[in-house]
Amino acid sequence: MSETVRNTALFAFVAVLIVLTGMMQSWNTALLILNMGLISAIMALGVNLQWGFAGLFNVGVMGFVALGGLAAVLVSMPPTNEAWAAGGMRVLAGLLAGAGVVVAAILVHRRMKPSRFRALLTLIILVGGSFLYREVFDPGVDAVEDVDPAATGYLGGLGLPILVAWPVGGLLAAGAAWIIGKAALGLRSDYLAIATLGIAEIILAMMKNEDWLARGVKNVVGLPRPVPYEVDLQQSADFLERAERLGLDPVTASSLFVKLSYSILFAAVLILILVLAQMALKSPWGRMMRAIRDNETAARAMGKNVTARHLQIFILGSAICGLAGAMMTTLDGQLTPTSYQPLRFTFLIWVMVIVGGSGNNLGAVLGGFLIWFLWVQVEPMGLFLMEAITASLPEGSAIKAHLLESAAHMRLFTMGIILILVLRFSPRGLIPER
Amino acid sequence: MDFLNAIVALSNFVLIPGIAYGSQLALGALGVTLIYGILRFSNFAHGDTMAFGTMVTILATWWLQSIGLGLPFGLPTALLALPIGIAGCALLVLGTDKAVYQFYRVQKAKPVILVIVSIGVMFVLNGLVRFVIGPGDQRFADGERFIISAQGFRDMTGLREGLALKTSQGITVITAVLVVVFLFWFLNRTRTGKSMRAYSDNEDLALLSGINPDRVVMVTWLLVAALATIAGTLYGLDKSFKPFTYFQLLLPIFAAAIVGGLGNPIGAIAGGFVIAFSEVFITYAWKKVLGYILPEILEPVGLVQLLSTDYKFAVSFVILLIVLLFKPTGLFKGKAV
Predict the structure, then answer these.
(1) Neighbours of B179 (CB within 10 A)
(2) Average pLDDT for residues A28-57, to the nearest whole number?
(3) DSSP state, B67?
C-alpha cells in the first residue's frame, strides 16, 4: 500500500466516523465534533511545529489557548465607556508604571558592573516600584470593577469584528512565548516543560482574578459572531424557502447552517496553516530545524544559532495555539476561564500529536480529528460499557451507582492508555515522519 | 507586649503554615529528585502518584474506622493506615515500571521520551483515582484537631493574638524529620543506599563494579512510593484530598526540586522550604503584624498583601524563573544532563 493511499484511507476512516455520528446520533453532534476537530487540528499543528520540527517540549498549550480566548474578548466586545471614564486611564498608567519598573530593573542589571551595590539597587527598584505600581493601579481597578458589576465591571474591548481577534490572539500568545523562551530555552529540555507548565497556570490565574480585564470567573458572554444568528435566519423568508426545499425544519436548518459556516471558516484557516507548515517543513529552514533537533552539536558546529532558532519556532508554534484559542472562544461565543483544564487543553493536544505522528503535519491534523472524536465519544461508550458490566448487579446497589457515575472518568484513562500504547508499539505515530 | 503579639501573629499565620507546607513540598520534591537522579527523567506522574497513595490510605482509613481501630492520644487513624497506603502505592509504581518504563530504560531512550511516557501514566493514574474515589473533596482527618488551640493559647499567655497549632501540622513536621533522617541514613550508610548513589553519579562505573541495576531501580521506586504516599497523606490531613489539587501540586514540587538542584536530596528539602515560605510570605496580608510593630502614625491602611492568594502558583514560578536565569543548576549543585 503506497503512502498516499494509506494516508487517504486514514483520513477517510475519520471522516466515516464523523458521518456515522451524524447518521446515528445527530448531524448537530457531528458538526460540533467536526468544528472542534478543526480547531484541535490547528492546535496540534502548533505543537507539532515545536515538538515535531524542533524537539521542544511545551506543556503550556492551555495558557496560549487561553490567551487567544482573551484576545477574542479584548478585540470584539464593545468598550465600556463608563468604566474607561471611571478608571481606565489609571489602570493603563498602572500597567505602564509596572512595565517601566521591570525595564528599569533590567537596564540597571545589564548596564552596571556586578557588585553588591547593583544587587541592592535592583532590589530597591523592584520593591519600591511594586509599591508605586500598586498605588497607581489598585484604585483604577476598584473604580472599573465597581461600574455595574453584574453586567460589565470591566473595561470591555475595542468593538472590532471578531475575526480580527484571531491574529491578535496569535500575537498575544507569541508575546508570552517570547518571555518564556528567553528564560528557559537553551537550558535542558525538562526545564522548558516546567516553565511552560507554570506560565499556563499563571495566565489562567490572571484571567480568573483580574476582573477589570475580562470579568474573571464571572465570564464574558455574548461575544459577537462572524456568522449569522439562528434567530435571524429563521426570520428570513429566503432561508425558510431554501430549508423547505431541502426538507428540513427551520430550527434544525438554521443551527446546521451556522455550524457549517463555522466549519468553512475554520477549514480555511486550517488549510492555510497546513500549507504554510508543509512549505516550511520542506524549505531549507525546515531542514535546518530538523538538523538541529537530531543533533544540536553538529548543527551548532555548522554555524547555526540553535538558541535563536529554538526561540523562533517556539514563538511560532505558540502563536498558532493562540490563534486556535481565539477561534475556539469565537465558536463558544463566551469566555469561561474555569473551563480551561490542563488535561484537556495541554495534554490532550500532546496525545493528538504523538498518535498522529510527530514531525508530520498531516499526522498532526489526523491526530487532532481522531483523538477529538474519541474524547467526545469515549464517554457515552464508557457509560454503555459500564451499563453492560453492571447489568447483573441489583438495582440500587451502591457499587452500581458508583461505577455508572465514574464512567465519565474513563476518558482520561483511555487517553493515557492510548498514549502509552502508541509510544510503546508505534512511536512514530499513524502517519510517520518522512 | 505589642512585639510579642507581632511574633505570635507571625508564627500563627506565616511560620507554622510555612513549615508544614514546606515539609510536604520537601517530601514531594525528594521523590521527584530521586527519580531524576537515578532513573534520569522528570516524572510528571508524581502528583498523581501522590494522589494514588493517598487514596489507598484514605480507603484503608475508612476501613479501619469501620472496624473501630484507631490510635490513642487523638492521633488520626490515617497514620495507622499509612503503611497500607505505601504498600499499595509501591505495588502500583513497581507495576508501572515493569509495564511501561522498563522498556525505555533498556532501550536507553532519550529522557524527554520518558517524560512523555510519564504524562501517559499521569493520565491513567488521574483517571484511575477519579474512577475509584471520585473527583470531589475528601476529608479523612479524625482525632484531636489542635495541639494548641488559639483560644487556649490566649488564656495561657494573656496575649491578644492566638497561636494555633493543628495536629496535622505537628504530625507533618515530626514525620518529615523522621523520614528525612531515615532517607539520609539509608543513602549514606547502607550498602544499597551507597550503590544507589554510585549508580546516580556514574552508571557505567556502577555497573562495572557489580551493582545490580534492577535492584537499584526497584529500591528507588519503593522509596519514591513511600515518600509520595507520606507527602500526599500529610498534605491531605493538613488541607483536604482532591485529585485535581494533587495534580496542581506538581508545579511547586518541581519548582522546589529545580530550585534546590535536580538530583540533589538536600537541595530538594531546601527548595521545598524556599518555595513554601515565599508563597506564604508573598500572599499573606501583613497588616496585622505590621500594625503591632510600627508606631501608630505608620500603621498601614491597606492589607499590605503583595499578591492575592490566587497567585500562589505565580510565586513558585517566578522563583523558578529567577533560579533558571541566574543559577540553572539550582542552589545546591544538581545534575545538568
Answers:
(1) 20
(2) 93
(3) T
For residue A1, the model assigns a pLDDT of 64
* Nearest partner of A434 among A360, A323, A361, judged by Cα: A360
Which residues of chain A have a CB within 8 Å of the CB of B95? none
Task: Mutation target for B interface from A412, A421, A426: give the one with most B CBs within 10 A.
Answer: A412
User: Does the structure show a pLDDT above 70 at B300?
Assistant: no
Candidates A415, A420, A421, A425: best to mutate against B (most CBs of B within 10 A) is A420
Q: State the angle between helix axes of A165-184 and A61-76 in degrees (0 to 180), rounded to the nearest 10.
A: 140
Per-residue cell: B60: 484503608
pLDDT tens, position by position, B267-299:
899 999 999 999 888 888 777 777 777 776 666
- More confident call, B296 vs A390: A390
Distances (CA, A) of A295 to A289, A397, B42, B267: 10, 59, 22, 32
Q: Å from B229 to nearest chain A CA? A: 21
- Checking if the pLDDT of A172 tops 70, the result is yes
Contact B124 A343 (CB under 8 A): no
Q: In the predicted model, what is the mean pLDDT of residues B142-167?
A: 79
Region A3-79+156-425: CATH code: 1.10.3470
Could you read off the pLDDT of A115-158 as tens digits, one per residue? 888 888 888 888 888 888 888 888 888 888 888 878 778 888 88
Does the pLDDT of residue A224 top 60, yes or no?
A: yes
- Residue type at B173 in one-letter notation: V
Which chain A residue lies closest to B42 (C-alpha atoms)? A190
Say if A399 is an interface residue toward chain B (CB within 8 Å). Answer: no
Q: Which grid cell is B34?
A: 530521586
Mutate to test the interface with B, among A190, A355, A418, A424 (most CBs of B within 10 A): A190
**Shortest Cα distance from B317 to chain A (angstroms)?**
6
Give the ipTM of the model, two decimals please.
0.85
Query: Which backbone phi and psi does B146 adopt, to 5 degrees?
Result: -120, 145
Q: Counting beta carbons within 10 angstroms of the beta carbon of residue A278, is it exposed (0 to 12), middle (13 to 18) or buried (19 or more)?
A: middle
Contact A197 B111 (CB under 8 A): no
Collect all residues of chain A within an 8 Å Cβ-Cβ radius of residue B311: 202, 205-206, 209
Average pLDDT over residues B245-263: 88
- As a whole number, mean pLDDT of residues B144-164 equals 78
Encode burial over B34-61: b for 16+ CB neighbours within 10 A, e otherwise: bbbbbbbbbbbbbbbbbbbbbbbbbbbb
Helix/strand/coil for B303: coil
Residue B334 banded pLDDT, cuts 50, 70, 90: low
- Would you identify the CATH topology of the domain B2-326? ABC transporter involved in vitamin B12 uptake, BtuC (1.10.3470)
Contacts B119 to A, Cβ<8 Å: 59, 347, 350, 419
Residues of A in Cβ contact (< 8 Å) with B130: 406, 409, 412
